[in-house]
Request: fold
Amino acid sequence: MQPFGRLKRLQGPFSVAVTVVAAYLTLGISLTGVSNILGYELGLDALSRLLLLTALLVSGLFFYTAWHLKEERFSLPAALVMLGFLAAALLVQRNILLDWLFVQAAATTGALLAAYHAERPEQVQAALRYLVAITLACACLFLVFVLADVYQTNREESVARLITAFLTLATGILIAAFPLHFWLPSLAKQTSPLTVGFLTSVNSIVVIGLFLRTQQHFPWLLSDTHNLTVLSAGGTIAALVGALLALSQTDLRRLLAYASISNLGSILVGLATFSKLGLIGAIFTTINHPLSLALLFICAAVLGRIAKKDGAALTDVPGRMVLMYIGLGVGALSLVGVPPFSGFVGKWMIYEAALAYSGYFTVGLLLASVVLFLAFVRYFYQISSRVSSITVIGYRWLFLPILILGLTNLILGLYPAPLISWLTQAIAGLQPIVGGP
Reply:
């Protein structure tokens, strides 16, 4: 058994090394060349490269934290397999059906990751609920491609609307957008913070990227502005309801789950504008979303470990670790969209783009941000009255992912111009679907 124990200890450094090597290779891939492997064209456009690098950064920090915390409920091999499927979804070019199949494989692996080391029936039920959600998303995607073939022959507007509806449903289920979020709150409560943080942050990057690629693959879906109006209204409602549900939460993990739902609603509104400003804002927020969530869930994982070790409630712990306390604050402010953090930049562009279409959408998004801010203020007020001595012994090396994520959120908020310039060039390939200012 000793060799197996040694191999288990090597999982952490091996996983981190894999993400570092993958990031290096991603930077080295030409954006103009395409490789043909087993009959499939592999390559990266500028947008896919940016999304993949973000996914690799966040994944590497989750792996590093799981390694140092010796988190038994986070299966590093399963997480690596899931990351591999998601990377393949971005690498395969000109085969949108295969891309979505890779996402489905990644989500199925994620369900196994959620069920890993389950000790109670509630934990198994949460993983099964996620598996049901994946099955529903798969059915919706199947109908998308069946109906796309039908539309190619009859060109009926009603068919195009059905395609948009099923594509939106599949995307909404996979990223847990309201009202399709039924799997996320229970998963957040019943699984480890690292598991649910990894699933929600890394998966959302690739799903939103593929949603854009699918719209480009079927540009005729955008000929009906009714579809975009419905998506904008749905995104606004999702942002508002997610924030309102977050306001009533006392459990940190469920609070973060509903905050994620609210933030994803804002992203959907930005995507629905399909203007240059709205698209840049949506992608900027898509990049900020996992960076902020990772920071919050990593802090929650460390605090949960200390609470378990000391027998304290999770709300009793944050004041005892100043770094974790600061990390929670930075992540929350960035996710809400408060300056000077990166979340503000993307959301402000979404507000402006939405205002060009309807002031109601902008008012709804602003109200959602205010309510979500109050939800975090309420939680921090609860824990601020329980501040005790500072404890960092045994968790010194965990300052690294918190420092990296915190500084990234701050730097992108203070100096967003380079990323905005990069995004402007990246969406040039999406020009057929980008309109407006």
User: Anything to note?
Assistant: Confidence is low (pLDDT under 50) at residues 1-5, 387-393. The beta strands are 35-37, 40-42. The chain is about 75% helix and 0% strand. Residues 276-310 form the longest helix (35 residues).
